[in-house]
Amino acid sequence: MSSPSIRRSLLVRCGVGVGVLLCVLSATVYLLVESSLYSETDEAIKETAALLANQVELENDAITYEWEEGLGANQTLVAGALFQFWNEKTGSTSRSPGLRWRDLPKFTGVDGAPLMRNIQLSDGHHARALGLRIYPFVLEEEVEAMKARGTLVDRKTLPQILVVARDAEPVHRALQHLRWILIGGSLLTLGLGYVLIERAVGSSLRPIYELSGQVQDRSSHRLDEPLDLPEDLPSELTGLATHFNRLLSRVAAIRQREKDFIRHAAHELRTPIAGLRATTDLALSQNRDASTYAAHLQTCQKSAVELGELVKRLSALARIGSDVAPAVLEPVELIGAIEACWEPFGLRAEARSLGIHLLLPGDPLTAVADPALLRIILNNLFDNAISYTSPRGEIWIKVVKADGRAEISVRNTTGEEPIDTERLFEPLFRRETSRHDAGSHLGVGLTLSLEAAKAMRGDLRARSEKGEIEFILSVPASDRDEG
């Protein structure tokens, strides 16, 4: 079954609408013209009937039709006229010369009232006719004469039926001609209208076709590019295109998250895999005794444990910004977590002869955080501090509680001028590494840490001064330490 077509639907509906409109207009024009023509004919018939009604006279006790006398005024009245009188008392009839021996239909309205109707003449022509009952008029002199003769007659006793007709064949032919003109004109208008509607519909649907082409192109290989919306895009499509662009931006964000996740995973896996490879290379470089191999295996086991922890952290990364699996916030003993995270970095700091200052409070401090995300942030901050601290420089790690928040400060010397701290959190941004032990950094650690902090309802900010840089992680503190 074929899909519904907007184009076909518009053409059919517009065609039907135009057709109905043309039919209504044609019928209206026809009825108005018909009414006008018949009104003129009917008025002429009524005038003739009024004149003829005054031509019936009671004279010498008999009915006289003055039009038969052929007087001057009557010649114009009689010429070409079609009328007929019936004497209802005697049954006699009188016709106009135009009828010859043929009769008109005899009719009147109710109780002899005037009635106009269509009739057909004996020659087959269409005609309009008026039928009514009339009574002869009586002059005053005739009334006096009848009184003198003692034969006074009431004119109401001498009713006459008068039917006046007029050949309507010219009107009928004119209306028939008008019908053909209206039908032909309507068909021609409908055909031209269809062509114009088809072009108008095609022009109106062109933005939809263009938009559809862009959507199809995006669906194949350019999902992260928004649609190009022309300035003349119809308002009916603007909302749809705007919402689709928002959807594309969400798709682009998801794809970017996938790329970022891959970069984050590579960043996290780099250190333990490098250590594991170095240990195995060293163990295989020459024959060793069992105790040495056991020591190397213990190192490998430790690296495997670290890789297991990395898997947990990568799972935590996937939860950042996700509504399906949000960060799992729970009470975390902050001092122990910091000491556990710092332990593997101590040897690196010692190897670089760095001064380490752990300024931790003596009392326990509990934060509300996701343990895996917190470990990711601390690992990145400690790794950056050791990598970017100037030779024989110093690192300060400080923890305080203020206004219901736990703040972890990691500050180190750099020996450099102040830098733009906002750029530090941009993806793939890397500081100049020629003077630091940071050549293998990918530039995603701080971006990841900021996202993780926000996922835990916290914040991560940086402050740079001449020769120093400080990162401050703020997370909600638990109330269990109070009282």
Automatic annotation (TrEMBL):
Positions of the HAMP domain: 202-256
The organism's place on the tree of life at top rank: Bacteria
GO CC annotation terms, alphabetical: membrane
SUPFAM superfamilies: ATPase domain of HSP90 chaperone/DNA topoisomerase II/histidine kinase (SSF55874), Homodimeric domain of signal transducing histidine kinase (SSF47384)
Subcellular location: Membrane
Protein keywords: Kinase, Membrane, Phosphoprotein, Transferase, Transmembrane, Transmembrane helix, Two-component regulatory system
Catalytic activity: ATP + protein L-histidine = ADP + protein N-phospho-L-histidine
Molecular function as annotated in GO: phosphorelay sensor kinase activity
Residue ranges of the TM segments: 12-33
Enzyme Commission number(s) from the entry: 2.7.13.3
Keyword Secreted among UniProt keywords: no
InterPro entries assigned: HAMP_dom, HATPase_C_sf, HATPase_dom, His_kinase_dom, HisK_dim/P_dom, HisK_dim/P_sf, TCS_sensor_his_kinase
Domain Histidine kinase: 264-479
Pfam families linked to this entry: HATPase_c, HisKA
Protein name, per record: histidine kinase
Species per Swiss-Prot/TrEMBL record: Luteolibacter luteus
